[in-house]
């Protein structure tokens, strides 16, 4: 329950405080940009972003399929 | 796509490095997964052993004309309505694969009659208290449980000794040296048998298995190679 609460608060902070996708992504059309953002979370083709995205992508792919379960009765 | 995002060397290098960092480890993991084979059985799931070494890669004996009357599912108690020489009260290892059950070997070796009941839906005290058991008790009562459920089944059936304390299940890392040596030796033996029998005639393989210690199988037993992935 505590873990769930921490998760909810952390994700709530991300939703309200972190830049949105239009802000941290590079400008596709500068005239269309409505909320300019120049903070440290703005995406750039740097090694820090590379390592972060690669680590996240690896974690996401390796989590596909879930954990191996010891529960075998689903096969009957 | 416009001049802001296309034909940018930093962006191109970023994508190339990203693919290299992600695809290379993923390829390695995929190749290792194919080599080690997908986990399937209890030993490999719980014991952290490789399916390649401890899974069903060797031919198995099957009894196509099995006479076993087994529970058909988790909630099916099974049938025990008349005298049988042997009564088995067990989990899915006692009724999960009718044609490959260990009871087939028991019947073939003894020619005794056998009934099997499901320990997940029948309690031992109900079996012992049933009229057929009290009036016509079997010669042998076998209580079978997978080791990881043993304490649970003992508790459920009031068989846990007073003062006994369940212990945490051991893992491969906690094995004794002797246990580790035995596991390794068995793994090599299993792989050796698999490799040696791969090209042999099915009957020869069957006979080799019989010579290896299987007693008096019932006529008509066949060797099959079930897929490790069900």
What features would you describe in this structure?
The complex is a heterodimer of chains A (76) and B (230). With 76 residues, chain A is mostly helical. Helix content of chain A is 47%, strand content 0%. In chain A, 0% of the residues are buried. With 230 residues, chain B is mainly alpha-helical. Residues 170-176, 178-203 and 225-230 of chain B have low confidence and may be disordered. The chains are: A mainly alpha (76), B mainly alpha (230). Chain A binds chain B through residues 26-30, 45, 49-51, 53-54, 57-58, 61-62, 68-70, 72-73, 75-76, and chain B through 2, 4-5, 8, 10-11, 13-14, 17-18, 21-22, 25-26, 29, 39, 42, 45-46, 73-74, 92, 96, 148, 230.
SSE string of chain B, helices as H and strands as E? HHHEEHHEHHEHHHE
Which stretches of chain A of 5+ consecutive residues score pLDDT under 50? none
Summed over residues and divided by their number, the pLDDT of chain A gives a mean of: 81
Distinct helical segment count of chain A: 3
Kindly name the structural category of chain A. mainly alpha
Helices of chain B, by number, come to 10
Rg of chain B over CA atoms, rounded to whole Å, is 25 Å
Helix content of chain B: 40-55%
User: How would the global form of chain B be characterised?
Assistant: elongated
What order do the strands of the largest sheet of chain B run in, or round the barrel if closed?
A: 3-2-4
Q: Which pair of chains forms the biggest interface, and how many residues does each contribute?
A: A-B, 22 and 25 residues
Major sheet of chain B: size, sense and barrel closure?
A: 3 strands, parallel
What's the quaternary structure here?
Answer: heterodimer
Helix/strand/pairing category of chain B: mainly alpha
Query: Radius of gyration of chain A over alpha carbons?
Result: 19 Å
Percent of residues in β-strands of chain B:
5-15%
* Poorly predicted segments of chain B: 170-176, 178-203, 225-230
Q: Whole-Å distance between the termini of chain B?
A: 47 Å
